[in-house]
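User: I'm writing a tutorial on reading structure tokens. Could you give me a worked example: one chain, its sequence, then its tokens, then a sentence or two explaining what the tokens reveal?
Assistant: Sure. Here is the example chain.
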Amino acid sequence: MEQPIYQVDAFTDRPFAGNPAAVCPLDAPRSDVWMQSVAAEMNLAETAFLLPQDDGWNLRWLTPVLEVDLCGHATLAAAHILWETGRLAPDAQARFTSRSGMLTADRRGDWIELDFPAERETRTEASLMLFAALGARPRYLGKNRFDLIVELDDEAAVRALKPDFAQIALLPVRGVIVTARSDNSEYDFVSRFFAPQCGIPEDPVTGSAHCCLGPFWSARLNKTELSAFQASPRGGHVKVTVKDDRVLLGGQAVTTLRGNLTVAAS
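And here are its predicted structure tokens:
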């Protein structure tokens, strides 16, 4: 039996920008080995696997090399496909059980709004290994359960970074978020995200990183609604609203590929 699969560019309103994710809607459970093989075959930052259940869908995210606990762009892509393919009514909420608890997605006109947990950071001490990896000295360094967050002096410093991915891969974290205030009045802050530990040297647009970036910049800018740009080569726009222990992430999505896996599922 053929298995439908889709590719979606998330956090963008045009093809070949934002962050591409694969979405694989399943009709029955599949083995972890099969799902990891599919994610490796797709070779994207994440592949989302959806399995229907009574109150929505079970959602899992796999990189080409491992399963992760939280992923924003592939969740946005999954919700987009549920609505686009008619698996979910246009005005219905997408509800996902995941390794990070219950997550939801709602349509807001041309945008999709994700309800995710806030992942606040606490200050930590810098290391010589981090300096060597980034080639820059942080203005501030924090850490949450996933990542390091590094604030630099300005947007130009963020954009100019040429990190040593081999050194970053040695750090005991999922990835490194680098951020600064934006020079563009359209955005409050910019960021980049590096996760070679997960098989992703630089992620184009990282929803889960904004679960940390939202509270971080909300406290510094004294505002709860923020506009963000992830300054990767593909680039992407994320709307961020901070609400207590939750973060609402707004983004758009475009389907770029529809197909079928012709290999037998296991």
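What the tokens reveal: The chain has a mean pLDDT of 96. The chain is about 20% helix and 40% strand.
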